Amino acid sequence: MSRRSTRRRNRINYSQFGDDDAKDDSADSDVSLDGDISDSSVATDGGSDASDRDDSVASIVSIPAKKPQEGITKIVRIDKSTSLDMLFTQQFGFDSALLADRVHQREFWSPVLVNLPDPGTWPVLERPQTDLVLLPQTTFTARSTKEILHGRAIHLIDTQLVSIEAGTAYNSTINTGYHVTDMSWTHIDTRHILAVSLLSDTERYAAVPSSAFERKLALGVIQLWSYEDTSMSLTLIAVVTHNWGSAWNIKWRDSTLQCLCVFQDGNARVLDFDSLVSSNGITYQHLDTPSVTIESSMSLISCACWNGPNEVVMGFDNGYVGLYSLHSLMFEMVVPCHSSYIIGINAAYPEYPRRVGVMSTDGQFSVLDLNSLAELKWKRYQSFGSPVEWSRHMHGFLWVEDSLNCRLGSLRNVHWGGLVSWHNGTLTAMSASPEHPLVLTGSIDGTIKTSNVVRKFLNKHDTGKQFRQVQLWQLKYDCDRDAYKFIGGFKPEEVRKRVGVTMNSVKGSTTTSPMPVNTSEVLAMGNKQGVTACCWGHNGIYAAGMANGLIRICRLPDTRASNLSE
């Protein structure tokens, strides 16, 4: 019989990798790689044929002994946290006082779906008190009524067909007469003030293509409305016109009646409405000189927000981010952030001063820390849509993903982006309240939805899977009667996973399928029923503005708008 070398299967010694639990069940015996390999280590079955003999010179190959290795650190990725302690520390850190406050917030808000408790019982999130920088007064020129209120009347189907003239309100519905671009609430005692930015020349903008920053500017309008808690009545306070085109990013300054706006001419301005709100009756004014004008000679301002009462953070059309101080009336810093036009910005104030979330037209959302420019920490998500909000209850930013979904990203958990809300149409408006954890979202199909982020993210995984959102109402258009109607009574619905993506049996792999087409109805874009702005007010009041000029104001809970049972 010839001598033949037979192959023996080796069993891997996993101890050298620092994992004592690993094993290979397919092996039958151990083979040591330490020492020399010689002829004695080769199994034979006899034989002396020339073809089977190995006539080469025998040699001994020496393999050096295994070098000592350092211990290997195990990296464990936790996909689903089941421990509440882990959830809270991942979200808020290890500050015992902060954790105790957030545990109290969770116990109070977790059962809430949409039926808010009495406002006097809410746990309050403290806001630091800061001395305000005194600003010059805004100057106005009186105008007549006919020059301002020439918007068209809108027919609304309630219990009967109602015609609402421009500049008037019917129950909880306002007809501004113009396209609503943005809104913001503030309150003084029991009086709530709603500032509404409008664009009067919408027909020209719809007919002729125009740029975001156009030098030939249309007449812009800002309306101020008052809502009384006791009487629940809506009253028009002031109508203000200006020559700076469309306005957006309306934000009230803390504890004042001063308002920050970004205008189509590429500048941001601070307007003082104290003299208009304190006057009796309706006043019609033209804005001449603002309190503060913020402008840059190098680029145009595309969005802005308050970073405390004395600082303004803004984004530019060249991708830069700037910090403006009202103390010096100068830019403290201007830093590069994106390579394209910035369309959304918001500050994490007061929890993380000078930390901002930035959205740009390249589809990326990032977080920028202006206090540590030498150590910029970025979080990038593929996102579309301009709304960016800061959630004080969750210490995270809310942004629009894939045009249809609202997601929340924590500042402490780098790879975390939880789904908060979804729509069938493009998500165009979003608002997070500093008083409660309910998030308001609106879309182009005229729907308004709300969801509770504390209920979603500060519970164990089994509870989080039962997370629901509520469609409060939807605006429908009746072509036959040329009228609009608010439809309510929707049941809570499950927040679905990302549309078009399903998990495979192989761990971590996904399969992308074509997105389903909604064939239930055809949305007529010409009726302007889409939501263009929404905002939370004080004590559960919210407002939603439409492209047709309607604004609906409601207070939660509202049994007319939604079905409160799960």
TrEMBL record:
Ranges of Basic residues composition bias in the record: 1-11
Keywords associated with the record: Nucleus, Transcription
This protein's record includes keyword Nucleus: yes
TM segment ranges: none
SUPFAM superfamilies the UniProt entry points to: WD40 repeat-like
Subcellular location: Nucleus
Biased composition regions of type Acidic residues, renumbered to the chain: 18-37
Keyword Transferase: no
GO biological process terms held by the UniProt record: transcription by RNA polymerase III
A GO cellular-component term linked to this record: nucleus
Domain of life: Eukaryota
Location of region: Disordered: 1-56
Listed InterPro entries: GTF3C_component, WD40/YVTN_repeat-like_dom_sf, WD40_repeat_dom_sf
Name used for this protein in its record: Uncharacterized protein
Gene source species: Tortispora caseinolytica NRRL Y-17796
